[in-house]
Amino acid sequence: MGHAPPAIEAVSWGWRHGGRSTWAVRHLDLVVQPGERVLLLGRSGSGKSTLLAGLAGLFDERGGGESEGQLRVFGEAPATSRSRSGLVLQDPEAQLVMSRAGDDVAFGLENRGVPTDDIWPRVRAALDAVGWAYGPNRPTDQLSGGEQQRLALAGVLALEPDLLLLDEPTANLDPEGAGLVREALARVLDHRATTLVLVEHRVAEWLHLVTRVVVLAAGGGILLDGPPSEVFVGHDELFARHGIWTPDHRGKRPARPLLAPQPESLIVTEQLSAQPPLADRPLFARLDLVVRSAEALAIVGPNGSGKSTLAHLLGGLHRPQAGQVSASEALAPGHAGSSVWQWPARRLVTRIGSVFQDPEHQFLTGRVADELALGPMRGGLPEAEARRRALELAERLHLDAVWEANPFTLSGGEQRRLSVATALATAPRALILDEPTFGQDRRTWDEMLSLLAGLADSGRGVVLATHDRALVEALADRTLHLPLGA
Amino acid sequence: MRWRTIDIVVTAALGVAFGVVFWAWGLVFSAVGAGTFAPPLYILSGVWLIPAVLAPLIVRLPGAGLLAEFMAAAVSALLGSAWGLDTLASGLMQGAGAELVFALGLYRRWTLPVALLAGAGAAIGEWFHDMAFYFAGFAFTIQLAYGAWMLVSGVIIAGLGSWYLLRMLRPTGVLAAFPSGRSGPEPAS
Amino acid sequence: MQLRRPGIANPTAFLPAANAVAKLGAALIVMLVAFLSRDPVTPAILLAGVGLAMTLTGLRVADLVRLVGPLLVAAAILGVLNALLTGTPVGSSPGAVVDRATIGLALGLRVAAIALAGSLALATIDPADLASGLIGHLHVPDRLAIGALASLRLVPILVTEWRTIGLARRARGVDAGRNPVAALRLALGALVTLLVSAIRRASRLALAMDARGFDGRTKRTMARPPRMRLADWLLLAASGALGVAAIAISMALGRWAFIFG
């Protein structure tokens, strides 16, 4: 090629975070030329985020980490070429610094010492580049997730980077939000020949934007490297084995048993309504819904449409504004027709299990073993019996390896399995899950699908509040779309 | 001892989190709060002082107590304290009280006795503020009675309490970026 | 309690549009003069002045009442408490009672003046403007001010999380019922969970800020450099004049008393 150095050059590069004993990335050899657009794939733990952070020049050996090999961005050490790269992270909330949109975009420019008079024209240009529909004074906490990510992208673009690094930018977004971000990125790439490295789990929607796919192997090295048309052909088994999404992977629900239990109603809502305090329309009104056993019910809709609210109401976690949520005889013998909101927590936990979107919200103890035993003991089981059940569940959900660990130190997938396990520990007949497949790699996703299918097939009522279309297609027997009009 | 970005933002966020908790627990003075001016009820006053002791224990940098306590006060003020900017003055004096203790230890001693003393220091700062602003007319013996309650509360709730909070936070792995977090187990990815 | 401060109905009103540091300074002047006084006249005059300023806040009347009401009630209660618990003068002669009541009145008005000035300032100052004002006019270290400002973004997030954490505990079968010890353990557990979340989010935010060049060696510029206009200087001057007038009138009436001694 010409005299310009490659955008990225890694020679046997590795990085170990301070305080950890395993290497996050190892033996990486990679060359990316300017103008290439790379989709970086790999299982959780294969070092994708570490690589991006390293490219962005964020690592500093003073923090205790250690590197080996060589990593060059445009021919120099990443820390030196930091001004030529821009990094967009996964969580929109964690990236926005200012409370007004324009101020946030200006933040990066201020940091670089750009003179005041040059700042606002560049801010406006960056906002235009991502197709920003609002003015610069829009409060950032009134934006949807997709809009926040667009704003984060604008903030990075204002600095006119030559290398764009995107670390799962749509993982926390619903499909509409993800679409906004893709659209914005497509616009940007139409106008400038920026080098792009993109990490994403769900690949299908991004293929038209990239020129090359690189698959990292956990433990070091590269599995596959080539244009999309080649990488995804004939390697299905390899991808499946390594737990990596392919464009056409559709989860499939395991075959149902021949003798399926008859569905009975478990939770009944009557005339249930919810309206947020400042809204002019309700999320749902006068809703009559029945949660049945041996059935998977999906509640779908974009973020903010009331899925979590409905999930919490069905779970008996707070009082309905209007209407009633009551239990059937099948769910709670002797308490048929009573309102679940008024039950003491001890009774609730043995009848209806609720799994929250963020597993960490539900952790109560300092050990996985104690987490699993807590629910059954609260429900009245003697300790020895509770511990036995806890051990069973841990083995079933592959948590025995972390039996003694503090729940907060588990990986994302392990935390999610733990939160489902704790809900199952009390053997409730109804299980309500809020976004159970949030940001997961293929292996965890497939496991979750078969777990939930198995629960429904064994006679439980499973309710999923989710915007994951693939999960809904694979699993749901019935679907409820929110928001419903009045 | 240079302040990294993470030190600044985490210290401030600790204060913010406590400000939210004060609001959630109804400890922010509105008209209702005015009714709790009786000395025995000040036994809970140590709760307000926790940020001033906990933040320095975590971050181990000069000024952390001041910053965290100031932010806790700021958030309390923004979420509904009736006293407005005066809440910030209160926060500054409480933070200064704790800060003084850590300064006397040259910012190198982070042990339990120091935490208890810092709780006492913060309580003394709070005492000066409340006597000067709210209870300036009280008889001195009554002011001392308030002071006694505040001191005990500061030492136990803010001093000992912060120590225990630090011990509960360490094993979660969330303090890995700070020197105070090094003795916990290794977190996953 | 409201989550948000009352929205400014009229953002072009005098106070919302004024320079943040000028507003801070004006409030601090009034608060200082009130703090230093021990008589009823000084704070009364200050209150009158600040009361006039309420018309310049651009807030709706209902919001103003909600802002000022609890403050006045609390100040009144404090005034009464001070009157009841003051050491001197002793005795139940009418003179002594009136003296004690005057002390109570003076201190109650004093607290009201301090709190009212402070509340109006808080209601009309935008934190981002204050941060740039502190950096630009008072040379506060910029990384400190911006870092603190960034952490304020976590407030609505943490409020929502607090509620969710409470719901999650109920879902796990844990509620306090009537047992105070159980309630305490529950509260403590929720506190730790919230702190973990706050520290995690703050750490990620710090990383994102560094990724955008925050910890660089370059000197930061400002997108919105603060400016002091004539009106801002006038605000400060008016506040100073109010303070001086309050002391002068109080002295002229022979009522001035210094707080210490």
Structural class label of chain C: mainly alpha
- The average pLDDT value of chain C, as a whole number, equals 88
Radius of gyration of chain C: 23 Å
Looking at this structure, what is the CATH superfamily of the largest domain in chain A?
Answer: P-loop containing nucleotide triphosphate hydrolases
Low-confidence stretches of chain A: none
Query: Which band does the percent of strand residues of chain C land in?
Result: under 5%
CATH topology of the largest domain in chain A: Rossmann fold
Unreliable parts of chain C? none
Instruction: Give the overall shape of chain A, derived from the CA principal axes.
Output: globular
The profile of the biggest β sheet of chain C is: none
Total domain units of chain A? 2
CATH class of the largest domain in chain A: Alpha Beta
Strand content of chain A: 15-25%
CATH architecture of the largest domain in chain A: 3-Layer(aba) Sandwich
Helix fraction of chain C, binned, reads over 70%
* Coarse structural class of chain A: alpha/beta
Shape of chain C: flat
Sheet of most strands of chain A: 6 strands, mixed
Total number of beta strands of chain A: 17
Number of distinct helices of chain A: 15
Spatial order of the strands in the main sheet of chain A?
5-6-7-3-8-9
Secondary structure elements and their pairing?
The complex is a heterotrimer of chains A (486), B (189) and C (261).
Chain A: E1 8-16, E2 25-32, E3 37-41, H1 48-55, E4 66-73, E5 85-88, H2 92-95, H3 101-111, H4 116-129, H5 145-157, E6 163-167, H6 175-191, E7 195-199, E8 212-216, E9 222-226, H7 228-231, H8 236-242, E10 265-274, E11 284-292, E12 295-300, H9 307-314, E13 322-327, H10 345-351, E14 352-355, H11 368-378, H12 383-396, H13 412-424, E15 430-434, H14 442-457, E16 461-466, H15 469-475, E17 478-481
Parallel strand pairs in A: 3-7, 3-8, 5-6, 6-7, 12-16, 12-17, 14-15, 15-16
Antiparallel strand pairs in A: 1-2, 1-4, 8-9, 10-11, 10-13
Chain B: H1 5-24, H2 31-34, H3 46-59, H4 64-79, H5 85-104, H6 112-133, H7 140-169
Helix pairs in contact in B: 1-3, 1-4, 3-4, 3-5, 3-6, 3-7, 4-5, 5-6, 6-7
Chain C: H1 14-17, H2 20-36, H3 41-53, H4 61-85, H5 94-124, H6 127-138, H7 142-152, H8 154-171, H9 180-211, H10 230-252
